[in-house]
């Protein structure tokens, strides 16, 4: 079909320069991204519109999915903000999120550098997570101490079998009663707001190892992961519409889109990823690929934003909060 060139050009919007001024609001800056024609900047604007639309839809069940790595950074505070404001209904994440949230409730992590000598750090018993430095006692040892004490309390209540999301809710209650920095905790805010945390790979981390270790002396104690799946089934079945903000990839990303295929796909979804598409990985797969699997609806509003979540997530969160408050 021939296209009328003049009509086509008239249908386009002019590229406008971004104007930076003193005291400009983050929301104003991101709104200007929509007119700048600026590569990833425009994608951030479009993602912000989808996110705001999703949150404003009272009939939408919204999923927040993210990997553990960003919980080791200050981005944990951004996640906490989203959860504390009840902007999402379900959290799907990895075991490392539980590890880092526990550790940082009681201990400090430190700013480091990517180019550090890892052999020297190993001699110092300092772990490196990107450019974050974590002394050994501020991670494994404190996670072990807290988790074992917590599991003893659970066991002494007479609990012998429990779903992961139920266990993590009880962990939020434990943090409430024992951690002086509880208001910084993702797990605590999820417990306070009755938001289930689903961790499909619960054994893949320090917290999961402590579950295994505890069971060596308590053979009648079990984690029932099938109850987590039943919880997701119930959520999906009762949802008129669903939305998702999915940071990174892996098991937490796939668990969200997998379950949503049973309601003909997500209605709104944002991916934020640094992974490439050409290797066929799930982490690098763009939203359009999930449409072929019916994991995202053909009618969905969707976008993939390429970039570092520690930059993009604070921008999206600041935008949404500013818009919701005005």
Write the layout of secondary structure elements.
Layout: H1 5-10, H2 26-36, H3 39-56, E1 60-66, H4 76-84, E2 90-93, H5 95-106, E3 110-111, H6 118-123, E4 126-129, E5 132-135, H7 140-156, E6 161-162, H8 164-178, H9 186-192, E7 197-198, H10 206-216, E8 222-223, H11 225-237, E9 241-247, H12 250-260, E10 266-273, H13 287-292, E11 296-306, H14 309-325
Parallel strand pairs: 1-2, 1-9, 2-7, 6-8, 9-10, 10-11
Antiparallel strand pairs: 3-5, 4-5
Helix pairs in contact: 2-3, 2-14, 3-14, 4-9, 5-7, 7-10, 8-9
Radius of gyration: 21 Å
SSE series: HHHEHEHEHEEHEHHEHEHEHEHEH
Number of helices: 14
Distance between the termini: 45 Å
* Quaternary structure: single chain
Q: Helix content range of the residues, please?
A: 40-55%
The global form is globular
**Strand percent estimate:** 15-25%
If strands are numbered along the chain, what order do they take across the biggest sheet?
7-2-1-9-10-11
Query: Main beta sheet, described?
Result: 6 strands, parallel
Which stretches are poorly predicted, pLDDT < 50 over at least 5 residues? none
Mean pLDDT over all positions = 97
* Class from helix and strand fractions: alpha/beta
Total number of strands: 11
